[in-house]
Design goal:
6-stranded antiparallel sheet, single chain, alpha+beta
Amino acid sequence: MIYELPVRVYYEDTDMAGIVYYANYLRFIERGRSEWVREIGMDQNAMKAEGYVFAVRRVEADYLAPARLDDELIVTTEVTQVTGARLVMDQWVKCNGKALFHAVVTVIMMNEDGQPVRMPANIRRMLN
């Protein structure tokens, strides 16, 4: 399943040249992952109450072309790998079909002490 999230570029997202500041792409893809989790019916507040949270372990990012003020972007999120302890996601930011940013994001599950743990089976099932 590929999840798509529309995002508009606001003035606050840009640098002095009117180009999206590089770190904001990480914010855009974080929103994409958060909305995807919500879309598949996962309640992160309930997970936290049970002692589990997702955390980004690794990001491989490629900046391909600039986004500019008022651009309408599409952030796509696709799970490419699920194991007992992590999931890997392929995320793109595009404008009018043109790829601007690409990231491969590895997410792990942690307990409330910040230690990596295996994902509960019910969560793994939701991800497949």
